[in-house]
Amino acid sequence: MSNVTNFGDQLTELKEQGLLRRRRLAGTACGPEMLIDGKPVLSFASNDYLGLASHPHLIDAATQGMLRWGVGAGASEYLGGHFPPNRDLETQLATFFGAERALHFATGYMANIGIVPALAGRGDTICADKLNHASLNDAMLLSRVDTKRYRHGDMAQLAQLLAQTPSGRKLVITDAVFSMDGDMAPLRELLALCEQYDAWLYVDDAHGFGVLGEQGRGSLAHFGIAAQRIIYMATLGKAAGVSGAFVAAERVVIDTLVNHAHSYVYTTATPPALSVALLQSLQLIAQGDALRAHLHRLIVKLRSGLADLPWQLMPSETAIQPLLIGDNQQSLKLSEGLRERGIWVAAIRPPTVPQGTARLRITLSAAHTEADVDQLIVVLHDLAQES
Predict the structure, then answer these.
(1) Per-residue pLDDT tens digits for 121-166
(2) pLDDT digit string (tens) for 292-345?
(3) Which of 73, 138, 237, 298 has its CA 20 to 30 A from that of 167?
(4) What pTM value is reported for the model?
(5) Domains of the chain
(6) For 251-353, where are the E strands, in sequence order?
(7) Which residues does 178 contact at the CB level (< 8 Å), separation at least 6?
């Protein structure tokens, strides 16, 4: 983008490049069938992977939580108090992941930008995957540490970077499931390198928690790994269906964050009513093997049905199934063509993804039916014939 000073010119340039973002008005609760800009659509754009966002048990729990605790927390937990539902949620999250402690944040973004600068500062080194989420990139900037980014999933390059790292704390940061590609980080290999070079491993499992591993315990459980040097973060607004995020780790790590994570210390606490709902959500996740099995069947069905399209599905075994288009304007055209036929799939363009890799980001939910997936397959084939 050219160096312009006028905001209007910047927006015009974004529009001409097919990069201008706009918000669509959602007229119904989150679910497969929604109203978007007043039009009924079948949505494949949500991260509600288990279909819990409108689950009646969570609605009932949140309602009871509001009747007991109100709708707000009023202040930070240092000023207004650490409410019992928030305390109980942290205890249950730590137990669920077999960690000593857990800490609850308002969002995943706030978790990352609070945790990373609290754990690494001047004189330390961060090594990070180049395709990590934007919140992790922002967190690294806030930390003001020496940052080294390795090619996506390239363990040989990461090993070289760690070997060249001087004294000081070392922190390796990765998404577990990459939000725009849908592939998984090689967590076993990452942990082995962290053990070899005495580094902490920070795992952002926003898109694996609730979906992967035994009882939905996430990507660490999926790969069968655990270690004291792992700092595990996951969000609670995707598969968990509510809102927020948490980090689970050794007691000394959590105590450090309680004292130094600015996005926790200096913000109003999460409403305790949401924690009441999340406690119910944890139970549904643990009991959700049937939901995860259904979701897996949908993933297999979609990949089989779209295998012969002129556009390529990117390699992914997760609920995120990106259809690589390449051109920004064509991806927007396809997204609009789907919407005109009653299906909502978001077009993802730079800078969210690298130049030349614009895509349709198809996300599946256990709330979808096989008929829903069949409908998407048919419409995409129709659009392919018309293009």
Answers:
(1) 889 999 999 999 999 999 999 999 989 999 999 999 999 999 999 8
(2) 999 999 999 999 999 999 999 999 999 999 999 999 999 999 999 999 999 999
(3) 138
(4) 0.93
(5) 23-50+288-386 (3.90.1150.10), 56-286 (3.40.640.10)
(6) 312-313, 320-326, 343-344, 346-348
(7) 129, 131, 132, 152, 184, 185, 207, 320
